[in-house]
Each structure stands twice: as structure tokens, then as C-alpha cells.
Design brief:
By secondary structure, the chain is α+β, with helices and mostly antiparallel strands. The chain has a single domain, classed as Aspartate Aminotransferase, domain 1 (Alpha-Beta Complex). Helix content is about 40%, strand content about 20%. It is built from four helices and five strands. It has a five-stranded antiparallel beta sheet with strand order 1-2-3-4-5. Strand 2 and strand 3 form a beta hairpin.
């Protein structure tokens, strides 16, 4: 896939289960944080708070997608993420598996509060 200049181009670079999962996460993100804008940052879609701070990002790979939050947001959901592979701030979503919509909505809401109330910026 060539380097995407827009989020639409990024998603168009995927097909099948990958595209389906990425589009589901995208729709959920727009629903959960409608005031955020979507932009390409470091080659991947990111949701940007009106203040200009990145809230979270989504990276697509061959067999999975990562939703990347701040490490503090990811850590706040350790118990809920026991069935997922996680990284410092990321959650791996394998293609072909149901998107954990409720969990992602709660994580997004937490991240927004974390930024707006506690002033936590991007990594």
C-alpha cells in the first residue's frame, strides 16, 4: 500500500475482513466522539480533539488492526482486555473477530475525559 494522504485513501488500501473491521472502528469512533476530526498522522488515521491533541489512532495490518490510545487509557482497562493482545497503548483486533464496540466506546470516553479533565496529551 502506498502512503495515504487522506483517511479515505488509507481505508481504500484494505479489502475484505480488514477493510470491514477498520470501517467498523471508524464508524464507532465518529459516533463516540463526533467533535473530533479524523486526519492522517505518521501515515495512519488519528482522531484529533478540537484542542489539537490526538485522542487515539487506528493502524491496519495484514491480519489485524491496532487501536492505539495513551498507555494510561489502555492500562485503565486491563481487566477488560484480558482476552486481547495489548501493547504499551495498543489493543490488537484480529480480522474476522467481532469488534468490541462497547469496550472501545468506554475507552474512547475515558480518553476524552483524560484529556479534557486531567490534561493528558498524546504520548
Amino acid at each position: 500500500m502506498s502512503k495515504a494522504e487522506t483517511t479515505d485513501e488509507y481505508y481504500e488500501g484494505f479489502d475484505g475482513q480488514g477493510r470491514e473491521l477498520l470501517e467498523q472502528v471508524r464508524a464507532l469512533a465518529h459516533e463516540a466522539v463526533p467533535e473530533a476530526t479524523e486526519a492522517i498522522k505518521w501515515g495512519t488515521p488519528a482522531w484529533i480533539h478540537p484542542s489539537g491533541t490526538i485522542l487515539f489512532m487506528v493502524n491496519g495490518y495484514t491480519k489485524h488492526a491496532n487501536v492505539v490510545f495513551t498507555p494510561s487509557t489502555r492500562a485503565a482497562f486491563d481487566a477488560d482486555l484480558a482476552d486481547f493482545t495489548t501493547g504499551k497503548g495498543s489493543v490488537k483486533l484480529p480480522y474476522g473477530r467481532t469488534v468490541p464496540g462497547d469496550l472501545l466506546r468506554r475507552m474512547i470516553a475515558y480518553r476524552v475525559r483524560e484529556h479534557e479533565v486531567e490534561g493528558v496529551r498524546w504520548m
